[in-house]
């Protein structure tokens, strides 16, 4: 096929800095190879002087093969012998060329110039035998470094803070001190604290970022941030810049980038609000808010007052306003609910249009005060906006930031200390990790002589998949380039953000090159992969969704896919090229729970709980069979793409179970392969024989001198019962039978231990890989497996295990113990090692992959499943967020007082991270939709609400219909939470797809679709909604095979010993009979949860309290003979996440809200004559600190009086009196865990939350707040409360007495609605 005009220009462009924006399916690899080959053939380029960097080793190998083929074909077409010889010489040198990944290139730089890398003591950092540590070993070393550093710092803090170490008054240095294995405090910021102050803030940091039980979350945070920071060049300096930015932000928040960004966003909102007000004012006289004239005037005045606020804000924002200027205006904006409900009959009238047009003003109100209109249709549109942002004045914001500044400094100082020790540990093992390669190569390339060597070596540099490069990789390229870099990629396919890909670098470079600044921008938009209908549909959807704000790129004419594929459409049916199918699961099995056990037989439809993935797999199964019968398609023509490997594995499993060959991710654990598991257990036994499960597994295996039957293992247990000692563990029983067991069992155990002892002896002088090889040879396991079913794969698994041992030994010290830990780390990992698969690969099979793994691939027919599954937003969930472009932010965490809430910078950065993640999800959707050649299926599922409306964002259809521009507003796109949301937005203005009739029959629209916008939509799409029941009924599944009857038990082999030789005692007979009958001795416990809550225990009495010898009661400390000691655990309780939806609160939600108020309200600041107004002010303070949401204030109005009455009560006065004595409380919202026995050998964990307790005269007073509304007199209320909650309060009492070692003298229920105390 000849090249297109665009491709010809790319191939023939003269050498310079060139960026090629190559769309999906545009043949960029072919063009890249054609360009290099043509320049080699013309003599402008030598293969030894070209550097090609690819994303994967497979891509590098493929490009080398293509280049060799292109040059060989060119040589065959040339008649000049000299030219043929020259080109053949170039072909022969391709294996020596620099076509590789960037890590391979970095390794080459290190190999050539490692002698230039020295430390401060002039020691060479990289020895000649240095190797690359595999990812598993690197993780182990990094985690060990974290533990070592934190333990050393804890020890220092103990000496300084508890033992008055003389060094406590010394200032900390500003740089880390040598050696790395003696971590010591230093300051990363400009301040110079004393060691004592440093230790205080370090311990505070540990409390803030740790958990109730340990500091594992802190250690995990150090590991995660270490990975992110190492993707940056000069990351230590970048950390110092970020910390300095936090210091300045805490001093002058108004001048910070966060404040300016929020003000700029408010400026845009107010501008839209001003336009909206101008359009809405004429409509106010055409309707009434309510029928009552007085109330109508009040609501109208409220809106007029807000209109004036819009004008005032608009004037202020014309200048350069300060944060507090806006904060003062925000304080005047009424919070709570705004009148805004519209009846269905009023939607298209003046009232409906009025409220719809005022949405920008409601956005402004929401941002200023947290207020919003009553109509819930508007509430869902506030996603991405933070309520009451401007309600916090700068002095409060800065106080929060100043408090967190030293905590953040200590965190990143710990990360730097960890990195230094981690580097030292790798050096001791003569190993590097992948990030070391990049950093050391960059360090070397900053040496002028080294950089000049590579600039002279490479005439041209080619960078493939540039959109997936990280910042440090870009820095490496800059050091070796000289106006000769050819970049190629597609920013719309940048989906590796989790690997630190930076698509913004692609965009910045394309903007500069488009303007002729530093290079040229070329484009490849022709698509040779997909049918025109697929491309037109993709253009239709993404031209509406993709913009710089929503996807970090504008989907303009330069990005639209141009159909270039020739040939007929599959089945000559253009209407079926793109198919969208939604499965209505309303009322179907499994609707409520999508995560039930999927191991049931698919054919047992009455027993199986189907989740959305299972239903979608059935639909895929039907379509595959249909197209096989109709078009003669092969299995390899089909691909199923899912968002996760787990879903892909489920689909593959269902297809395989129904006779459709399918190849997908192996969802099972790594060591589900039995040979791999056997070798792992054998290594565990050789390392430590006293491990029961590995020992039992090896004895049951087919290894020589093993092969113990279940009956023989039972005989070992019975024989050990004769021992006078209490042999509890299996290995003890085996050792006993080795000496005293009956024949022939005793001899067999002896032969087994001779085998194990021999291996242990060999392990003392053989390397681990040599030991494994000797096991393979001496047992003949390889020969035996090669002759069995699936032998090739099983032998490959054993060879892989030996290769792991060989990799483990490279350049490091360590015996069996370290190797076992190494294997355990592999088993815990999320990804399988490269090159390992279970089972022989199937060629003609349906491919089931994640979307990420499908990038760069193409399939004839593609099913994209799970389009309705919600995105998981996890980046902003942690207490600290790091974005090297925007900055650093954290929650405000007060571990001493026990609460936290997001700071303003954290709220801003969380939203930016969410938007960046959503932009990548949109690009991931683009990648998925551009894999298909002939036909594309988009499959999702949903359930309808009680009123029949779909349980999806149906408001997207309503909102997007009225927009006139081709590209939808970014704020609307950024509300999406699934691929289906993207589709609804893109299809809502398509007249060929009747979404309203399919999803929302009878629902009236308040906006009409613009004719110009509708005329640009594609009609080549088939949209259908089917029910899950219909899908189950139509699925042609074969009947299950009849199971073979069980064989008669009498045919089972005996125990191997005569019954007369050994007489069982009564206890043994009992257990033997139980096992023979197959009865489980703890049948009464199987339905009893191992962990439960006090609320679940209300209706059953607690077990009798046990007393120790001293007579003290203990709730959580059991006797040493039966139970472990279980501590009461206390933790910081985080403030609940902000939500934007609102509805009438249920009794449970009301109770939770009141408990939050009683937890956080500062009763000590209230006088004995507290009014409802005082309570209202305190509640607003809670809103300002994000302890409760502003939209909940109206729900608390009816409880202002009861709260005030409690503040004025004698009980509250007693509580405030206790607060004046240090350590006497009150202790609020205290979580606890206690144990109670459920049998002689078992216990269960009970957890709960104590509302409040305090100490009075040496005893505890327990308070439990209840929001129950109980009719009747006081005696009746007392009786009801005692019946409902006496058990619950008894558990609370036990927990307090166990934790505090003091008695509870009063158990009080405060009934909030009645403002009455009841003594239980």
Strand elements, count: 28
Give the overall silhouette: globular
Number of alpha- plus pi-helical segments: 48
Distance between the termini: 89 Å
Low-confidence stretches: 590-609, 1002-1009, 1037-1062, 1099-1142
Estimate percent helicity: 40-55%
Q: Describe the main β-sheet briefly.
A: 7 strands, parallel
Strand order of the largest sheet: 15-16-14-17-21-13-22
Structural class: alpha/beta
* β-strand amount: 5-15%
Provide the residue-averaged pLDDT: 81
As a whole number of angstroms, the C-alpha radius of gyration is: 35 Å
Explained architecture:
- This protein is α/β, with parallel strands linked by helices and 1320 residues long.
- It contains 48 helices and 28 strands.
- The model is unreliable at 590-609, 1002-1009, 1037-1062 and 1099-1142 (pLDDT under 50).
- The strands form seven sheets. The chain has a seven-stranded parallel sheet with strand order 15-16-14-17-21-13-22. It has a six-stranded parallel sheet with strand order 3-2-8-9-1-10.
- A hairpin with a 4-residue loop joins strand 19 and strand 20 (899-902).
- The N and C termini lie far apart (89 Å).
């Amino acid at each position: 096929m000849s090249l297109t005009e665009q491709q010809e220009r790319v191939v023939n462009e003269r050498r310079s800095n060139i960026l090629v924006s190559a769309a999906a399916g545009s043949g960029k690899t072919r063009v890249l190879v054609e360009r290099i080959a043509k320049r080699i053939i013309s003599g402008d380029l030598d293969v030894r002087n070209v550097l090609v960097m690819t994303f994967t080793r497979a891509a590098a190998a493929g490009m080398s093969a293509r280049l060799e083929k292109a040059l060989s074909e060119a040589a065959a077409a040339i008649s000049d012998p000299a030219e043929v010889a020259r080109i053949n010489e170039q072909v022969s040198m391709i294996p020596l060329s620099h076509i590789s990944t960037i890590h391979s290139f970095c390794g080459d730089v290190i190999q050539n110039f490692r002698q230039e890398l020295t430390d401060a003591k002039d020691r060479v950092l990289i020895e000649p035998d240095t190797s690359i540590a595999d990812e598993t070993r690197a993780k182990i070393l990094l985690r060990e470094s974290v533990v070592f550093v934190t333990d050393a710092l804890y020890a220092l803090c103990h000496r300084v803070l508890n033992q008055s170490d003389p060094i406590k008054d010394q200032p900390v240095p500003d740089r880390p001190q040598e050696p790395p294995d003696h971590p010591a405090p230093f300051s990363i910021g400009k301040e110079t604290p004393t060691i004592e102050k440093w230790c205080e803030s370090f311990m505070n940091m540990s409390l803030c970022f740790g958990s109730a039980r340990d500091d594992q979350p802190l250690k995990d945070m150090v590991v995660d941030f270490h990975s992110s920071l190492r993707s940056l060049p000069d990351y230590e300096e970048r950390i110092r810049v970020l910390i300095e930015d936090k210091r300045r932000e805490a001093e002058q928040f108004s001048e910070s980038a966060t404040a300016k960004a929020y003000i700029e966003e408010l400026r845009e909102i107010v501008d839209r609000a001003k336009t909206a007000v101008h359009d809405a004012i004429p409509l106010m006289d055409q309707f009434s808010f309510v029928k009552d004239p007085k109330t109508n005037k009040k609501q109208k005045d409220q809106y007029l007052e807000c209109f004036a606020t819009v004008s005032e804000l608009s004037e202020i924002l014309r200048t350069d306003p300060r944060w507090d200027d806006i904060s003062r205006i925000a304080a005047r904006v009424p919070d709570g609910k705004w009148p805004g409900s519209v009846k269905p009959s009023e939607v298209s009238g003046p009232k409906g249009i009025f409220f719809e047009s005022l949405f920008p003003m409601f956005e402004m109100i929401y941002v200023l005060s947290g207020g919003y209109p009553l109509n819930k249709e508007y509430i869902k549109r506030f996603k991405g906006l933070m309520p009451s942002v401007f309600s916090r004045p700068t002095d409060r914001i800065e106080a929060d930031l100043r408090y967190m500044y030293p905590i953040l400094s200590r965190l990143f100082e710990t990360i730097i200390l960890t990195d230094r020790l981690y580097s030292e540990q790798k050096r001791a093992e003569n190993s590097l990790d992948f990030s070391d390669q990049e950093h050391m190569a960059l360090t070397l390339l900053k040496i002028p002589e080294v950089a000049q060597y590579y600039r002279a070596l490479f005439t041209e540099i080619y960078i493939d998949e540039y959109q997936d490069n990280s910042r440090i990789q870009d820095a490496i390229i800059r050091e070796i380039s000289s106006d000769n870099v050819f970049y190629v990629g597609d920013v719309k396919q940048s989906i590796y953000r989790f690997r630190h890909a930076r698509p913004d670098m692609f965009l910045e470079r394309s903007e500069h090159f488009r303007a002729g600044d530093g290079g040229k921008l070329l484009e490849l938009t022709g698509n040779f992969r997909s049918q025109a209908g697929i491309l037109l549909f993709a253009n239709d959807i993404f031209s509406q969704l993709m913009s710089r704000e929503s996807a970090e790129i504008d989907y303009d004419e330069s990005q639209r896919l141009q159909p270039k594929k020739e040939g007929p459409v599959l089945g000559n049916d253009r209407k079926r090229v793109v198919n969208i199918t939604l499965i209505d699961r309303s009322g179907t099995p499994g609707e409520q729970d999508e995560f039930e056990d999927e191991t049931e037989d698919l054919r047992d439809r009455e027993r199986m709980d189907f989740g959305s993935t299972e239903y979608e797999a059935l639909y895929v199964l039907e379509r595959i069979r249909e197209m096989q019968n109709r078009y003669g398609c092969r299995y390899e023509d089909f691909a199923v793409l899912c968002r996760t490997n787990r879903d892909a594995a489920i689909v593959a499993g269902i297809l395989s179970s129904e006779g459709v060959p399918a190849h997908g991710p192996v969802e099972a654990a790594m060591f589900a392969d039995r040979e791999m598991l056997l070798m792992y257990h054998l290594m565990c036994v050789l390392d430590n024989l006293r491990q029961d499960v590995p020992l039992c597994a090896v004895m049951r295996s087919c290894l020589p001198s093993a092969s113990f039957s279940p009956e023989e293992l039972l005989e070992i247990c019975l024989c050990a019962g004769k021992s006078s000692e209490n042999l509890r563990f299996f290995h003890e029983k085996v050792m006993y039978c080795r000496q005293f067991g009956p024949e022939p069992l005793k001899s067999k155990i002896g032969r087994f231990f001779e085998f194990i002892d021999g291996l242990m002896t060999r392990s003392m002088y053989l390397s681990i890989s040599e030991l494994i090889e000797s096991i393979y040879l001496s047992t003949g396991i390889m020969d035996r497996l090669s002759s069995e079913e699936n032998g090739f794969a099983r032998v490959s698994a054993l060879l892989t295990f030996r290769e792991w041992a060989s990799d483990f030994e490279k350049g490091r010290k360590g015996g069996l113990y370290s190797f076992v830990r190494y294997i355990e780390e592999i088993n815990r990992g999320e990804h399988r090692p490269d090159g390992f698969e279970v089972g022989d690969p199937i060629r003609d099979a349906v491919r089931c992959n994640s979307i990420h793994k499908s990038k760069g691939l193409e399939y004839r027919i593609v099913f994209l499943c799970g389009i309705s599954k919600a995105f998981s937003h996890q980046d902003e969930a942690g207490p600290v967020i790091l974005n090297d472009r925007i900055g650093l932010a954290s929650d405000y965490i007060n571990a001493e007082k026990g609460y936290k809430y997001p700071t303003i910078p954290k709220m801003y950065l969380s939203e930016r991270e969410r938007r960046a993640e959503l932009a990548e999800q949109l690009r991931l959707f683009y990648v998925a939709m551009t894999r298909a050649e002939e036909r594309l299926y988009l499959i999702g599922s949903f359930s309808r609400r009680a009123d029949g409306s779909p349980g999806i964002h149906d408001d997207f259809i309503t909102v997007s219909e009225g927009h006139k521009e081709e590209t939808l507003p970014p704020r609307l796109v950024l509300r999406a939470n699934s691929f289906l949301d993207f589709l609804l937005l893109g299809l809502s203005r398509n007249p060929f797809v009747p979404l309203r009739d399919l999803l929302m029959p009878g629902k009236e629209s308040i906006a009409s679709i613009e004719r110009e916008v509708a005329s640009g939509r594609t009609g080549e799409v088939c949209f259908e909604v089917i029910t899950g029941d219909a899908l189950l009924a139509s699925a042609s599944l074969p009947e299950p095979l009849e199971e073979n009857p069980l064989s008669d038990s009498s045919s089972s082999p005996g125990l191997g010993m005569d019954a007369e030789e050994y007489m069982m005692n009564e206890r043994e007979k009992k257990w033997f009979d139980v096992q023979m009958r197959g009865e489980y001795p703890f049948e009464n416990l199987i339905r009893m949860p191992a962990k439960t809550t006090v609320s679940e225990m209300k209706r059953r009495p607690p077990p009798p309290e046990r007393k120790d010898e001293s007579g003290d009661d203990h709730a959580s400390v059991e006797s040493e003979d039966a139970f472990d000691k279980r501590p009461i655990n206390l933790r910081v309780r985080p403030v609940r996440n902000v939500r934007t939806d609102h509805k009438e609160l249920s009794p449970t939600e009301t109770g939770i809200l009141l408990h939050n108020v009683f937890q956080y309200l500062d009763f000590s600041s209230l006088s004995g004559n507290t009014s409802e107004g005082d309570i209202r002010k305190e509640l607003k303070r809670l809103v300002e600190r994000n302890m409760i949401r502003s939209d909940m204030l109206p729900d608390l109005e009816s409880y202002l009086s009861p709260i005030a009455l409690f503040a004025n009560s004698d009980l509250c006065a007693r509580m405030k009196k206790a607060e004046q004595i240090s350590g006497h409380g009150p202790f609020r919202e205290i979580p606890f865990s206690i144990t109670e026995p459920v049998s002689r050998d078992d216990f269960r964990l009970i957890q709960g939350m104590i509302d409040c307790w305090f100490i009075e005269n040496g005893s505890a007073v327990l308070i439990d707040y209840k929001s129950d509304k109980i009719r009747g007199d006081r005696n009746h209320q007392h009786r009801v409360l005692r019946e409902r909650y006496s058990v619950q309060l008894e558990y609370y009492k036990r927990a307090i007495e166990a934790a505090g070692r003091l008695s509870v003298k009063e158990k009080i229920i405060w009934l909030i609605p009645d403002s009455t105390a009841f003594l239980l």
